């Protein structure tokens, strides 16, 4: 069974950046070859401690991210994932500002897919998970 945003309490129907970023964060965790239950638990731990934006993740720092991942039992990839999250959040804020700006700036699904994969640590699997619930055409029609 593929995890859905609603399974994680994420409401993408709002078009709000916070909800879209939470889905992006979840996709980053689910994109690793790890059990879905573990990825879900790690995601929920991030939300529990308020790490629900790129700015908050950057402010938390590597040690705190590793501790959060460990509490979520995401121990196999804790160091590399903490490093990846910091790198992605830094590039996201510096290059686009927000995850919704990436969506807004893409002309089509293929371009959005490419933009996501320009981030070091995001490959086809993670991009596919994210795009599974973000229909660019529908998103632009509803939220722009």
Summarize this entry quickly.
The protein has 144 residues and is mainly alpha-helical.
What does this structure look like?
This protein has 144 residues and is an all-alpha fold. It has eight helices and no strands. It has helices spanning 17-30, 36-48, 54-71, 78-95, 99-105, 109-117, 124-131, 136-143. The longest helix is centred in the middle third of the chain and has 18 residues, at 54-71. The mean pLDDT is 94.
Describe the secondary-structure layout.
Layout: H1 17-30, H2 36-48, H3 54-71, H4 78-95, H5 99-105, H6 109-117, H7 124-131, H8 136-143
Helix pairs in contact: 1-2, 1-7, 2-3, 3-4, 6-7
Summarize this structure as a short list of keywords or feature phrases.
144 residues, Endonuclease III, domain 1, 66% helix, single chain, mainly alpha
Order of helices and strands: HHHHHHHH
- What is the CATH superfamily? Hypothetical protein, domain 2
Helicity level: 55-70%
Oligomer class: single chain
CATH class: Mainly Alpha
């Amino acid at each position: 069974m593929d995890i859905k945003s609603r399974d994680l309490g994420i409401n993408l129907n709002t078009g709000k950046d916070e909800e879209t970023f939470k889905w992006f964060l979840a996709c980053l965790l689910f994109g690793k070859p790890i059990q879905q239950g573990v990825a879900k638990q790690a995601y929920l731990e991030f939300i529990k401690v308020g790490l629900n934006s790129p700015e908050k993740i950057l402010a938390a720092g590597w040690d705190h991210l590793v501790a959060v991942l460990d509490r979520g039992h995401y121990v196999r990839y804790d160091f590399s994932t903490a490093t990846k999250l910091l790198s992605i959040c830094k590039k996201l804020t510096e290059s686009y500002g927000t995850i919704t700006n990436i969506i807004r700036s893409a002309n089509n699904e293929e371009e959005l897919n490419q933009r996501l994969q320009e981030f070091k640590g995001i490959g086809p699997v993670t991009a596919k998970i994210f795009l599974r619930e973000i229909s660019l055409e529908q998103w632009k029609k509803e939220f722009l």
